[in-house]
Write a structure and sequence with these properties.
The chain is α/β, with parallel strands linked by helices. It folds into two domains: about 160 residues, 3-Layer(aba) Sandwich (Rossmann fold); about 160 residues, Rossmann fold. About 30% of the residues lie in helices and about 20% in strands. Strands 3-2-1-12-13-14 form a six-stranded parallel beta sheet. A four-stranded parallel beta sheet has the order 6-5-9-10, with helices on both faces. Strands 4-11 form a two-stranded antiparallel sheet. Strand 7 and strand 8 form a beta hairpin. Helix 4 crosses helix 8 and helix 5 crosses helix 7. The longest helix has 18 residues. It is globular, with a radius of gyration of 21 Å.
Length: about 350
């Protein structure tokens, strides 16, 4: 019998939603299609911790006051107990642009940031252009997982350091020029609502580098040439084809992303891994660092079967105790029962008798 750890009735109920990047998740593997799940989860917990892959929808974003936008490397460090999350009212956000972006496309992105300042009131203060093109390359493994490389890492780091030291920014939005691949079969599949997001893995590499180096909130938006119109476009991919830039969603997220703090700086009001009551993950994607770390704590793990991915790392195969459910709707019902301190078996037509020991 699976027994879930009982959450404190006095502390805020804190849940984490993870849908890993670049693994072809059926839900959350496209242009912001994980946002409805996050919106629903945010209604049944006091604090929801998730990451840009879930909340980014290109030009679309949904603000949620109790939701924390945490980059993937930072999420791993948080889950391991190395870093805490300090909520903020507002971050000064700096914009980092790849020198490899063409002049017109660069202007479109700067105008996108200006629009977020004027229309949404976001605190975007300064931008910097790298001193050399970043030269990003994209790769997809035989298992269907996307990743990538950056040729000029030093240029990326120098530009970020300039924003931090000169403009005193508290979060960084990066836009790198990504290769156009209009004719690839992978892109065609993605636009039809199947396959893997070939950009996501390389995006994660960029943000991981900056968060690891500077311990500052960061997210990435690729710069790409507009694609020819696709009449049969999947609704899941449609958010990425509304305009010239994916920048608005990450500027919105970074504007209130929590700051990272270390154990020596621990203060009241921060969130630490030992306060996470529940974690919801795709059942086939249980091998990530954050999942493995939280599996060593009292966090109640819920694994969702319907969210297929390119991976086959199930909780049982890595020794994780998890409650398997068929859907996110069921997962959220389980969360509500867990928060209420209910015995799950009491919600079924028949209740098993007590065991004699």
């Amino acid at each position: 019998m699976f027994l879930a750890p009982t959450p404190s009735r006095t502390a805020p109920y804190t849940s984490m939603l993870i849908i890993p990047t670049g693994i072809g998740a059926k839900i959350g593997g496209y242009a912001g299609d994980g946002i409805p799940i996050a919106r629903l989860m945010a209604q049944v917990c006091d604090r929801l911790i998730t990451h840009p892959n879930v909340l980014n929808g290109a030009q679309l974003f949904w603000p949620m006051a109790n939701t924390f936008y945490v980059e993937g490397y930072g999420l791993d460090q948080f889950a391991a107990g190395n870093w805490g999350l300090r909520p903020v009212r507002q971050n000064r956000v700096g914009l980092l642009l790849d020198q490899g972006i063409e002049a017109e496309l660069k202007t479109r992105h700067i105008q996108g940031a200006e629009a977020c300042r004027a229309t949404l009131g976001l605190p975007i203060t300064d931008y910097v252009v790298t001193d050399a093109p970043l030269n990003v390359t994209l790769k997809v493994s035989e298992t269907g997982v996307s990743w990538g490389t950056i040729e000029n890492v030093g240029s990326l780091l120098r530009a970020a350091e300039k924003l931090i030291t000169q403009a005193k920014v508290e979060a960084i939005a990066v836009v790198a020029r990504f290769p156009d691949d209009e004719d690839s079969e992978l892109l065609a599949q993605y636009r039809q609502g199947s396959g893997v997001d070939a950009l996501a893995g390389a995006e994660a590499v960029i943000s991981h580098l900056l968060v690891k180096k500077f311990q500052i909130p960061c997210a990435h938006a690729p710069a790409l040439s507009p694609l020819p119109i696709e009449p049969e476009l999947s609704p899941k991919a449609a958010a990425e084809e509304l305009g010239y830039t994916f920048l608005p969603c990450i500027l919105a997220g970074l504007s209130y992303a929590p700051q990272f703090v270390t154990k020596g700086d621990r203060q009241a009001g921060e969130i630490w891994a030992d306060q996470v009551d529940s974690l919801v993950i795709p059942a086939s994607a249980c091998g990530g660092s954050a999942v493995l770390s939280l599996a060593q704590t009292q966090t109640f793990i819920i694994a969702v079967n319907e969210n297929d991915t390119a991976l086959s790392i199930f909780p049982e195969s890595v020794g994780i105790k998890a409650r398997r459910v068929d859907s996110y709707l069921e997962a959220i019902g389980i969360m509500v029962a867990h928060r209420a301190g209910l015995d799950f078996s009491s919600l079924r037509p028949t209740v098993p008798p007590l065991n004699a020991i």
